[in-house]
């Protein structure tokens, strides 16, 4: 969309919200319009620079960077509704004050300002010095008394007429968002809904391209991209993660004895066992051939070792049966930990691979914890 079209669209939104957001002095409208126009130009630059092929995490990070540069706040919270549980909201990004909650905190529906924003269509600006709000909550009941913010403004984010989340600014100063920043937040959240809708449509196409056609797991290329993203995330939040490399034992005999269609059946079944053995937040991929990769986030080798053993045992216990032919399969696995064993993807894969082949040398059907070569 050309800048003029974007400007017209956003100024219509701005003027429609002029009274609702809190303008009390129309005599200053000229100055405000000029400031908003400058904000729109920065928003246009943000849109031009935004790469919708980015992952959801990278998109959220770009949104946070724009907010940091264009809004004044002591706490900023980007909220998205849970895709499966509409009465649950999740903090996708939190900047500033974090003594009350941080990223990935979940909020169930209750009487609070958060749900007032999510249930509304317009920006909600509240002066928290008003005693009538002291018994309520910003995000959860009682948090207005425990955390002394004086200004709160939230703007819903909508795509195709449906609210998918909101953006909330808070300040320890009173009266912070009565004028320009409150209007700008509404403008930004309105445009953000359009951008997120574009991203979602692109992501459907991208998701199809990311999947292995046989197993439905992430393919090799997508695994590399996601693994890099998780390493960056772990570094950003000072977290650990575990990489598992897995390889089916003696898989060649399946293709040679029962044919490639049976081999495909075994690969699909193995993929399902691996997927069922991890959490929703973990990553499972077909690395190539009969080799798989799993990224266990926010954990260590010590904490996840028993889970890895259960995955190995689950596959050994799984009965593969097709067209009257029954087979038992086993798998070998090696583990490497970030950043203990290495900070780069190649180093971690190499360490996990070596550990996996150590298991192969012992006959398979086990998991080995990798170590940095001496």
Automatic annotation (TrEMBL):
What is the name of this protein? GGDEF domain-containing protein
InterPro entries listed in its UniProt record: Diguanylate_Cyclase (IPR050469), GAF-like_dom_sf (IPR029016), GGDEF_dom (IPR000160), Nucleotide_cyclase (IPR029787), Rev_trsase/Diguanyl_cyclase (IPR043128)
GO molecular-function annotation terms? diguanylate cyclase activity
- NCBIfam families tied to this protein: GGDEF (TIGR00254)
Return any one Pfam family short name. GGDEF
Specify the signal sequence span.
none
PROSITE patterns on file: GGDEF (PS50887)
Q: Which GO terms describe its biological process?
A: cell adhesion involved in single-species biofilm formation; negative regulation of bacterial-type flagellum-dependent cell motility
Q: Which GO terms describe its cellular component?
A: plasma membrane
């Amino acid at each position: 969309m050309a800048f003029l079209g974007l400007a017209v669209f956003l100024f219509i939104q701005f003027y429609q919200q002029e009274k609702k957001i809190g303008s009390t002095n129309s005599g200053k409208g000229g100055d405000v319009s000029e400031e908003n126009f400058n904000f729109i130009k920065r928003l246009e630059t943000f849109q031009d620079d935004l790469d919708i092929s980015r992952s959801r995490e990278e998109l959220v990070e770009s949104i946070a960077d724009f907010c940091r540069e264009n809004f004044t706040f002591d706490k900023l919270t980007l909220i998205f509704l849970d895709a499966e549980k509409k009465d649950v909201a999740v903090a996708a990004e939190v900047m500033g004050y974090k003594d009350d909650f941080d990223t990935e905190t979940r909020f169930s529906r209750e009487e609070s300002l958060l749900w007032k924003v999510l249930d509304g269509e317009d920006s909600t600006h509240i002066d928290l010095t008003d005693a009538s709000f002291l018994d309520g909550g910003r995000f959860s009941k009682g948090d207005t008394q425990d955390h002394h913010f004086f200004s709160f403004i939230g703007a819903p984010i909508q795509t195709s007429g449906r609210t998918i989340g909101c953006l909330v600014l808070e300040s320890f100063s009173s009266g912070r968002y009565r004028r320009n920043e409150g209007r700008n937040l509404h403008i930004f959240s309105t445009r953000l809904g359009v951008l997120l809708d574009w991203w979602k449509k692109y992501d459907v196409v991208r998701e199809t391209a990311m999947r292995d056609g046989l197993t439905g797991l992430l393919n090799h290329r997508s695994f590399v991209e996601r693994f890099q993203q998780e390493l960056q995330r772990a570094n950003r939040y000072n977290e650990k993660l575990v990489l598992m490399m897995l390889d089916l034992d003696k898989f060649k005999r399946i293709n040679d004895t029962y044919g490639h269609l049976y081999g495909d059946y075994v690969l699909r079944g193995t993929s399902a066992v691996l997927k069922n053995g991890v959490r929703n937040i973990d990553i499972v991929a077909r690395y190539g051939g009969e080799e798989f990769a799993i990224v266990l986030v926010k954990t260590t080798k010590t904490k996840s070792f028993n889970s890895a053993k259960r995955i190995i045992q689950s596959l050994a216990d799984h009965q593969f049966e097709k067209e009257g032919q029954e087979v038992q399969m086993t798998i070998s696995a090696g583990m490497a930990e970030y950043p203990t064993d290495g900070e780069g993807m190649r180093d971690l894969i190499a360490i996990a691979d070596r550990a996996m082949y150590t298991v192969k040398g012992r006959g398979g059907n086990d998991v080995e914890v990798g170590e940095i070569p001496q």
